[in-house]
Automatic annotation (TrEMBL):
<keyword id="KW-0808">Transferase</keyword>
<keyword id="KW-0663">Pyridoxal phosphate</keyword>
<dbReference type="GO" id="GO:0009102">
    <property type="term" value="P:biotin biosynthetic process"/>
</dbReference>
<dbReference type="Pfam" id="PF00155">
    <property type="entry name" value="Aminotran_1_2"/>
</dbReference>
<dbReference type="InterPro" id="IPR015421">
    <property type="entry name" value="PyrdxlP-dep_Trfase_major"/>
</dbReference>
<dbReference type="InterPro" id="IPR050087">
    <property type="entry name" value="AON_synthase_class-II"/>
</dbReference>
<feature type="domain" description="Aminotransferase class I/classII large">
    <location>
        <begin position="43"/>
        <end position="379"/>
    </location>
</feature>
<protein>
    <submittedName>
        <fullName>8-amino-7-oxononanoate synthase</fullName>
    </submittedName>
</protein>
<dbReference type="GO" id="GO:0030170">
    <property type="term" value="F:pyridoxal phosphate binding"/>
</dbReference>
<dbReference type="InterPro" id="IPR015424">
    <property type="entry name" value="PyrdxlP-dep_Trfase"/>
</dbReference>
<dbReference type="GO" id="GO:0008710">
    <property type="term" value="F:8-amino-7-oxononanoate synthase activity"/>
</dbReference>
<dbReference type="InterPro" id="IPR015422">
    <property type="entry name" value="PyrdxlP-dep_Trfase_small"/>
</dbReference>
<dbReference type="InterPro" id="IPR004839">
    <property type="entry name" value="Aminotransferase_I/II_large"/>
</dbReference>
Length: 392
């Protein structure tokens, strides 16, 4: 039984979170994957999900999922290394590797699990891992898990990165890992420079393309678009964002993938993804490969909205992608703005510390390819009203 002291300390911590407007409550969304989600009986324009291409409710993905259940059942029933490795899973990995122009690809139960596995497999106490300060939490957790030395560099600061590399230049085992699109800011890593620097300093380069795949580089990610794909050692991505489904995917050369298959604990010791998910992943991959222009549509919507918001005086940071933050500062203001937009028929995510640094609480808008001109106008109108009502 929890001791009285322990219980009191938990209550105090919860009260502190409440006081700082940081207590998370899971919103009860009736149906959240559509362009219009339904929340408390109301239809709201969904600018909060990562379904950038609007594929999560696509009938072609649904049919592929249902077919996979018919063919293989509802659960994989074992890890891939035991019996949970069906033909469908291998087809997905092979087609994904071809799509990314890599030797091999490997599916994980989530993007989170993929990052843990990559870092924990390739890094140990003798390794230095260079990591952007705003990298995703799964990367930080992977570094902690591996026991590697963590050389953090200031966000997107190449000069600082070079200094960090100089100070560890005699270390033999070095890995650099970076998001290519930063999830709460929507800005892009300076990947061309990073790739050249890694080559110069003999550093293994790992990229997290979770938010870039499906959108940038004909769906193949930012490294492909910027023509540095061949300089990257491991490409990590996720089916949970633009592909509208679920799971992490890592691709690279055969030796690296084979090592990961042997060492990645979140792969070895976890049941394979269910067939329904893998069926949808394959359908989604085929749709994205067949229409490389899908990502460009979402980027057009984002550029238009960001330009407008900035002209209205909002701070959208350095976003250059489908993720557009509206940085407001205080936690309370972010919550108030979110509530205001809900009344205007728009669902946005209020993002607060520790997800973002202190005093940079924000609304995170994630744009979708299926937004019409009228939808974008509705959002613009709501932000003009927000400025008048709450921020002036
Ligand atoms: N990397 C990045 C950059 C992410 O934003 C996320 C999820 N938000 C992940 C990894 C984890 O992916 P998943 O949600 O599929 O576990």
């Amino acid at each position: 039984m929890i001791s009285k002291w322990f219980n009191l300390s938990i209550e105090t911590k919860l009260a502190e979170l409440e006081e700082a407007s940081l207590l998370r409550k899971i919103p009860s969304v009736d149906n959240g994957a559509e362009k219009e989600l339904s929340f408390k009986g109301r239809k709201l324009l969904n600018l909060a999900s990562n379904d950038y291409l609007g594929l999560a409710c696509d009938d072609r993905l649904k049919s592929a999922s249902i077919q996979a259940i018919r063919d293989y059942g509802t659960g994989a029933a074992a890890s891939r290394l035991v019996t949970g490795n069906f033909k469908l899973y291998e087809t997905l990995e092979q087609e994904f590797a071809q799509f990314k122009e890599q030797d091999e690809a490997m599916l994980f139960s989530s993007g989170y699990a993929a990052n843990l596995a990559i870092i924990d497999s390739f890094a140990d106490r003798q390794t230095v891992v260079f990591s952007d300060k705003l990298n995703h939490a799964s990367i930080l957790d992977g570094i902690k898990m591996s026991g590697a030395k963590h050389a953090r560099y200031q966000h997107n600061d190449i000069e600082h990165l070079k200094k960090r590399l100089e100070s560890f230049k005699d270390s033999l085992a070095k890995i650099l890992i970076t998001d290519t699109i930063f999830s709460m800011d929507g800005d892009l890593a300076h990947i061309e420079e990073i790739a050249q620097i890694c080559k110069f300093y003999n550093v293994m380069l790992v990229v997290d393309e979770a938010h870039a795949e499906g959108v940038f580089g004909e769906g193949k990610g930012l490294c492909f678009e910027r023509k540095v794909s061949a300089l990257v050692d491991l490409h990590m991505g996720a089916f949970s964002k633009a592909f509208g489904s679920h799971g992490g995917m890592v691709s690279g050369n055969s030796d690296l993938i084979s090592f990961l298959r042997n060492k990645g604990r979140s792969f070895v010791f976890s049941t394979a993804l269910p067939p329904a998910v893998v069926g949808a992943n394959l359908a989604s991959l085929r749709l994205v490969s067949a229409d490389p222009s899908m990502g460009e549509r979402v980027l057009e919507n984002s550029r238009d909205l960001k330009k407008f918001l900035e002209s209205e005086g909002f701070d959208c940071g350095n976003s250059e992608s489908q993720i557009v933050p509206v940085i407001l500062g205080s936690n309370a203001l972010a919550l108030q703005a979110q509530a205001f937009l809900l009344e205007e028929g728009i669902y946005t995510a209020a993002i607060r510390p520790p997800t973002v640094p202190m005093n940079t609480a924000r609304l995170r808008l994630s744009l979708r390819a299926d937004l019409t001109k009228a939808d974008i106008e509705k959002v613009k109108y709501a932000f003009v009203a927000l400025r008048k009502e709450i921020l002036s």
